[in-house]
Design goal:
Strand order of the largest sheet of chain A: 1-3-2
Number of helices of chain A: 6
Largest sheet of chain A: 3 strands, antiparallel
Largest interface: A-B, 33 and 33 residues
Distance between the termini of chain A: 40 Å
Helix content of chain A: 40-55%
Oligomer: homodimer
Shape of chain A: globular
Radius of gyration of chain A: 17 Å
Order of helices and strands of chain A: HHEHHEEEEHEH
DNA sequence: ATGTATGCAAAACATTTGCACCTGG
DNA sequence: CCAGGTGCAAATGTTTTGCATACAT
C-alpha cells in the first residue's frame, strides 16, 4: 500500500492524492508518460471531481517528496512518471510520443567522468534521444 | 560577414536580425546561453528599439533556418545558442547557470546503438548533465 | 476542532499572433 | 513600390496562487 509513502512524505492521505498515485502506477508503464492535463482528463472521465490546479499541486508535492519525476521533453507540457527508484533515460518518438526507457552503464560512467573532469559535482543528468519509432516508421505518413 | 547566412535562409537583412545574430555571436561562448528575454534586455540596454515579440520571431526563424539551436533546460525559459556546426552536449551549473559544452564519442556511438536496437530512427538527442561547478562549489553558500 | 487540502477563479509566465505601420531591395 | 518585417497589444497555453470551503486526523 502506498498510502504509507504519502504519510512518510508528510502528506495527508486524501482521495485526489491516492487517485493520482494510482493513475501514475497503472497507466504509466511503457506507453506515454503523463502530463498534468492527461491525469486531469483521466480523472474527470472516470467521474471524479477534481481541479486541474490540484493535479499540479499534488504532482509538485510528489516531486518534492521524491515520488515522481518531472521531465521537460520538447513541446510545452511537462510529463510525469513514478519514481520507481531505478534511474533510466528516455527514447522519445517524435511522431507518437511513445517513450522507451533505457539504461546504459557505459554512458552513465562516462557522464560522471565528464562532470568531474570539468570540475562539476554532478547532481543529476538527463539523456533524451529523439527519433521515429518502429510503428510510426512503418505506417508511412501520419500526424 | 553573416548577412550572407540571412540571405541564404531567405531572410531579409534587417537591423533587428543583424543585432540578434551579433549578440548570439559575441556573448554566447562559454558563459550562459541566452534566453529570448536576455537578448531583448541586452538590446534595450544598448539603446535599440525592439519588441520582445520580434526577438522570439527572429529566433524561431533562425532556428528553422538552422542558424541557432533552441534548448529546453530546466526552468521555464528556452535558451538559444548559435549553431556553429559542431554538435555538443551540455553541463549546466544548477547554481549559477554556467554552461560547459562537451562531446564524447563513446556516448555518441552508444546512443546510436541504443536507438537502433529499440527500433528507432534517431533524429536528435540531448544530453544534459546538471551539477555544481567549481566556482559555486568553492564559494560556499550563494543563491 | 483545527490545520491542511481542495476547487474555482484569477494571476503569472513564456510564447505566439493580429494588425497597422515601417523598411529593405 | 511592395512584399516582407516590425512594434505593440491582445491572445494563447501552461503552471501557479489567493481564498473561502471541505476534509482527514
Amino acid at each position: 500500500m502506498e498510502s504509507q509513502d504519502l504519510k512518510k512524505a508528510g502528506l495527508k492521505v486524501t482521495l485526489p492524492r491516492m487517485k493520482i498515485l494510482e493513475i501514475l502506477e497503472t497507466s504509466n508503464a511503457d506507453t506515454h508518460h503523463l502530463t498534468a492535463e492527461d491525469i486531469y482528463r483521466i480523472l474527470l472521465d472516470s467521474g471524479e471531481e477534481i481541479g486541474l490546479a490540484t493535479v499540479y499541486r499534488v504532482l509538485t508535492q510528489f516531486e518534492a517528496a521524491g515520488l515522481v519525476i518531472r521531465h521537460h521533453f520538447e513541446g510545452g507540457q511537462a510529463v510525469f512518471e513514478l519514481d520507481r527508484g531505478r534511474h533510466h533515460d528516455h527514447l522519445v518518438c517524435v511522431k507518437c510520443s511513445r517513450i522507451v526507457e533505457f539504461v546504459d552503464d557505459t554512458i552513465e560512467r562516462k557522464q560522471k567522468e565528464i562532470a568531474s573532469s570539468a570540475g562539476f559535482k554532478m547532481t543529476d543528468h538527463a539523456l533524451i534521444i529523439y527519433g521515429v519509432c518502429g510503428n510510426c516508421e512503418s505506417s508511412i505518413e501520419r500526424r
